[in-house]
Amino acid sequence: MALIYGIDLSQKKFDVSFRNEGNVLVHKIIKNNLNGIVSFLEGLPKGVLLCAEYTGVYGELLLFLCNCLNVPIALVGGYEIRHSLGLQKGKTDKVDASRIREYGERFGDKLTSTAYPDEEMRELKELFRLRGQLVKERKMLLTHEKTKPSMPYNSILAHQIANNMAESLKQSINALEEEIQLIIDGNIDLSTNYHLITGIIGIGQVTACELIIKTGNFKEINTARKASSYAGVCPFPNASGKMVKKSQVSNMADKELKTLLYMCAVVAKSRNPEYRLYYERKKLEGKPYFLIMNNIANKLLRTIYSIINSGITYRLGHVVYDPRHNENVA
């Protein structure tokens, strides 16, 4: 069994908890910079597995250097760590590092090494994240400007500056989208999957990029079932003893991806005859609107993963036969 090092990350330093050769608990504080991390990693014994709580940018440098020096590291969500150790009281960086180590020792068989994204995927994430921020800022400006006609007085200068800012943001968004498209077109794997996805009626460019980024180009989240659970469109049973309630989707989901899939479901219902017929059939059965749209989003994900795995372009009206009856299919 690998020796587990529990790491609690913060901006300027990280706390490390591990057991030494005498099975005595040791606590160390390492500076979260290049020199501090390299010195720490080079001094590690063989057969070590680092276990750290995923905290976004604070662990980026550590993850990158671990991959460069071939030191295995597993990043785990904080929610999973907190709810796997039972009732806990008190919180300090030293205690958190010890709890992360304890989690790694208990569930070492479930830990998987985390890989740092390659350069193209990393740049794609950064550009797409910035695009999303600029889109929100431009939307706020335009929404505020729409309320101006109902006001008795308006500032001409404020109106001009707001319009100039909105136009500048639009140009920046267009420049980001062009660069994102260049990155996708310059990579065979990204380009192939991107064009396969956007060939589905209802899936647009933004949703395609979001899916590629969030799923690691369909390698990290490699099944439609995992993707639907991640996006929050997969219903889970809700029953206990004789009490059986309706299945519900989990609130622990990627809200941005779920919103995009809902918008895609709306477009698919309107423009794709297959999904329109499905919607009308479920509507006649008395199913609630949002339940039907959730099911359509789920069906879209299954379609996406099906064409990604097969490499076959989406064809409207394609009939999928029951594999159990293949011998009867001419």
UniProtKB/TrEMBL annotation:
<dbReference type="InterPro" id="IPR047650">
    <property type="entry name" value="Transpos_IS110"/>
</dbReference>
<dbReference type="GO" id="GO:0003677">
    <property type="term" value="F:DNA binding"/>
</dbReference>
<feature type="domain" description="Transposase IS116/IS110/IS902 C-terminal">
    <location>
        <begin position="195"/>
        <end position="280"/>
    </location>
</feature>
<dbReference type="Pfam" id="PF01548">
    <property type="entry name" value="DEDD_Tnp_IS110"/>
</dbReference>
<dbReference type="GO" id="GO:0006313">
    <property type="term" value="P:DNA transposition"/>
</dbReference>
<feature type="domain" description="Transposase IS110-like N-terminal">
    <location>
        <begin position="6"/>
        <end position="140"/>
    </location>
</feature>
<protein>
    <submittedName>
        <fullName>IS110 family transposase</fullName>
    </submittedName>
</protein>
<feature type="coiled-coil region">
    <location>
        <begin position="159"/>
        <end position="186"/>
    </location>
</feature>
<dbReference type="InterPro" id="IPR002525">
    <property type="entry name" value="Transp_IS110-like_N"/>
</dbReference>
<dbReference type="InterPro" id="IPR003346">
    <property type="entry name" value="Transposase_20"/>
</dbReference>
<dbReference type="Pfam" id="PF02371">
    <property type="entry name" value="Transposase_20"/>
</dbReference>
<dbReference type="GO" id="GO:0004803">
    <property type="term" value="F:transposase activity"/>
</dbReference>
<keyword id="KW-0175">Coiled coil</keyword>
